[in-house]
Amino acid sequence: MKAVRVVEGNRQFVPQEIERPALPAGAVRVRIQAAFLPPYFEHLPSGSWQTPARPFTPGQCAVGVVEETADPDCPLRRGQAVYCDMYIEGPGPEADHGFIGCFGLAPAASRHLAKWPNGTFAEEFVGPEHCFTPIPDNVRTPPEILCRLGWFATALAGFRRGDFKPGCIVAINGASGLLGTSAAVIALAIGATQVRLVGRRTSVLQQVAALDSRLMVEEADDRSPVDFVLDCAGGENAAASVTLSERLRRFGTIVFVGALTERAAFNTSLLMRNSNRVVGSFWFPHRLAADVLALIAAGTIDLSPFRADIFNTDQILAAMEHSVDHSGGLFHVALKP
């Protein structure tokens, strides 16, 4: 079958024909319809990340159709549309989490990556049963759009871990990115009265703000108070995050779901006096994928403004370059076998 591979001695993705994967106990085989290609994937073949042993098939969130299951009692049925979540972890508090076909966040993740090395950038994906969420029949969103679902669920997890309450004024830092724009849509869906968009790409922020009157692009000197901050920013600019934390009302919360690489110098005295909370939130529990799908099915989330450019797996190098150059806001890149 056609697949994208990460191979020894090559710092680029390689399209290859490979054997159809086996179906071990507890697994489900899915025919891939579309897989999400985030821009950070350009770093995956470099060799600097903890990945499965090479060669392996990379991959991220995807949408597909069930072909077969190893367990006859599996609730998933042949022909059923499913969302595929690559996140994997053990049952306890040990830091052993990571992503199938991608990377681990701690050395202990290596045992999961060894068992499930191959991801969704192929005609078929075989993964553990718990990684698949049925897509309701009334969700008509095209697979190339719906494969972004993990970014919406990551935002929803951040709001829930921060104990978000409807009626809040929310600020989204990094709102022009894939995660930040997804977070803005989630904030509206769960009852934010106003969502203030903070980010570097003003033109993208304006496109997002045009979706709803409750969305607004912040001015650089805005210091109005907010109840909740979802920080989706990446890179080394922690100053914006610190400034937002100092705008929190009493009992307000800032939740970090992005990828800041710079340490933040918080005013801990102010946080203490206002009983503010600082929360970290990584990815999401598998069950939240169903919650996002329910919001889509109910019409609470409208994905019609979102766009995707589609590439075949044998176009992976062009697709990767396109994702790096253009992903963000309402736009992303998807792979189709």
From TrEMBL:
Coiled-coil segments on the chain, per record: none
rRNA-binding among keywords: no
InterPro entries assigned to the protein according to its UniProt record, in alphabetical order: ADH-like_N, GroES-like_sf, NAD(P)-bd_dom_sf
Residue ranges constituting the Alcohol dehydrogenase-like N-terminal domain according to the UniProt record: 26-137
SUPFAM superfamilies on file: GroES-like (SSF50129), NAD(P)-binding Rossmann-fold domains (SSF51735)
Keywords, comma-separated and alphabetical: Metal-binding, Oxidoreductase, Zinc
Necessary cofactors: Zn(2+)
Any matching Pfam family: ADH_N
Molecular function terms from GO: metal ion binding; oxidoreductase activity
The family this protein is said to belong to: Belongs to the zinc-containing alcohol dehydrogenase family.
Name this polypeptide is given: Zinc-containing alcohol dehydrogenase superfamily protein
Organism: Mesorhizobium plurifarium
